[in-house]
Amino acid sequence: MKTPDTAPALQRTARRAWDILVRNTADGTRVDQRYVAWEEALEHFAEGRAPATAEHAEIAEFLELLEASSIADPMDDECDGAYDWAEVDLGEETRAPVSLADGYWLRHQAAVVASFGRSTEHASAYLDHSSSEVLSRLAPPSQPEAVRSRGLVMATAGSGKTMSFTALTAKAMDMGYRLVIVLSGSRNIQRLQIQQALDAHLVEGGNDPILRLTTTEHDYLGTDLDRRLWEFERADPELPLNSVYNLRHTAPRLLAVKRNATVLGRLVRDLADHRAGLSDVPALVIDDESDPWSAVNTIRPGRPRPVVNELLARLLELLPRSQYVKYAWTPFSRSLIDPAGDGVLFPMDYVVTLPRPDGYLGAVEVSDGNVNVVRPWRDRGNSWDANGSLRQALDMFVLTGAVKLFRQATSRTYCYRSHTMLVQGGRRVSEQRQLVERLRLLWDEAEYSGEGSARRLNRLFDTELLRKADSYEEGSCLPETFEDLLPYIRDAAERIGGSSSPVVGMRATRHELWKVLVGGSVPPGDFEMEGLTITHLRQPSGDGAGVRWFGEWVGLHHGYRDLVRMYVQLEAGQDEDWMRASSRFESLCRAEAAFRSQMHAMAIAPGADQLRAAELPALAAYHLSRRHGQGSAGPGGTVSRWRSYRSRDPLAGSQGDSGALLPEQCIAGSAG
Hints:
The protein is of the alpha/beta class. It is built from 24 helices and 15 strands. Helix 5 (120-135) packs across helix 6 (161-175) and helix 16 (387-410) packs across helix 17 (429-446). The longest helix is centred in the C-terminal third of the chain and has 30 residues, at 575-604.
C-alpha cells in the first residue's frame, strides 16, 4: 500500500475525482460513452497505473493541470474544508453498490435458487422485498457524518427469519457496510445454524473477500489473528474508510456471535483496543431475538438490565456508524414489553413490519378458528410415552411424506427439500437416548412395506386427511383413492429410513433432511426445523413453557399447511393442564392478530394516528391486558381507546379482563 507521501499526484487526484464521480452519478443518469470513458480512466489511474491509451493520456493531462492549479485546492487536505463532502449532494448516490462486481445479493439469490428449486420465484421475491424494506432505513455508509440508528423488524414466527436477515446482510455489504455482526440465541445450536446460513449464501470458498471472524467450528475467540483483522485496510490512506473508493477496496468482516457474556466481553475488549480506527467503519449489528413465545412469561420490568444487554450497548457505542436492527417474531417482543430494560437498544428510530409470506400458518388462523392441528391423545395408563400416540404420530409422518411426494410428482408447483417430525424428549441426555431407541423400535415394528401398515394408513388417510381436504388450497391436491398413494408411501418410508436410522437427535443442518428429530424438554426456541410437519409433545403445562411448545408448529409451510399436525400426550388427570395451556396459547394468538391488525390500521391512518415506536409498548400492554375472545382478531378497538389506556384512564380497562396474559407489574411498566 502506498503512503500519502509517495503516492503519485495523478493517482491521488484520480482517486478523489473518481470518488466524487461515482457519488454523483451512481443513480444511472449518466451512462453515455464519454462518462464511461472517464469512469474507466479514473479507476485505472486510481490503481497507480500509467495511461494506456490516447484517451487516457488526454484525461491524465487534464488531471495534472487540475492538480497544479488553484482549482484543485478544495481537494488538498491541508486547506480549510478539504474534500468537503458536505458540499456534495449525496442523496441516493451514496447507496451505490461498492462491493464485488457481481454483488453479494446476486450471490445470495443464486444460493436461494439452489435451496428452493421450483419455489425460487416466490422465495426470492419475498426476500428481495423484505430486505429492501429494512435496508431503506439504514444510514448510507459513505455519508460524511456518523449516524447511529436503532430499529425493530417485526416478522412472523417460523417465517424464515435466518434467510431474511441473511438477505439483508448481502444487500448491506453491497451497499458498503464493512462490518456485520449477527447475534444469535444463547445456545450453540442457534449460532451454528446462523453461521451455516451466512456461509452457504454469502461465502464462496477460501479465497472469498469476506473475512470471517467466526466459523462453524468456533465462536469469536479474540486470537491475535482476529485482533489484526480489526485493522481495516485503506487503499487510499488520505481518504476516510467510508469513502466510495476505500469501501470498494476493503474486505467485509462477518461474525455470527451467540448471546453470551464471555464471548461478547471478548469482542467488546478487542473493539475498544481498536476504537480509533473504527470511527469511519460502517457497521450493521443484527440481533436475532430468540424464543419468540416466551417473552410474555419471562420479562419483569424493573429488574437490572442483563449483562449481555450492557455489553451490546457498549459495543454499539464503540461503533459510531453502527446500525442496530433487532428481529422479533411476535409483536410482543422483549423490547416492547420492557422498554426500560432494553435501554439504548429500544428501537426509537423505526419499526418495520414484514408481510406474512404465502403458505404461512399461525396466529391469524388460530384466532379465526380456521386451524385445528393439535390432536390430544388421552392415555388410560400412567406413562406419558405410551406407544399409542407415538405410533400414530409416526404413521402420520409417513403418510404426510407420501402426500408430499405425490404432490411433487403431479404438479410443478410443489417442491419439498425436507420432511421432519419433532418429538419432545426428556431433560436429560440419557432420557433422550432412550426415546431415540424406543422410536427406532416402533419404526421397525410398523413395517411400512407390509399390509398391516397399509390398513392403518388407509384409516388415517380417510379420517385425518380427506376430512380436512378443504381446509387450505393445498388440500385439493390429494389422490382420489388411497391405492394411488401406495407407491409414494414406500418411497417416503425409504427416504426416512434411508441408509441410516430414521431417528436422529436435534442438530443444526442446512442439508435436505427426511428424519424424526428428538429434542430436549426445553423447546428449541427460534431454531428452525426445515419441513416440520408432525410434532409430538409430552405432558403439557399451563405455564410459559407449555405455551412455547404449542408454538412449535407455527411457521412457513408452503404447499403443506393442511398436513401439519401436533400430538399431545395426556396422562390421567391432565385435562386441566391441557385446557389451560391451550387456552393461553389461543388467547396469545388472538392478541397478536388484533395487535398486528391495529398496527396496520394506524400505519395507514393520517395525521396524529401515525404509529410511533415510543407508543408501541403501551399498545402491546393494552392487548396483553385484555382477554381476547373469539372473533376479536379484527381491528381490535380504536386508537383513542388504547391511548386512553396508556394514560391510565380507569374506563379503558373495562373492555376485558386485566392481566390475562401479562403480569400486572409488566403492564404498568409498559404502559406507564
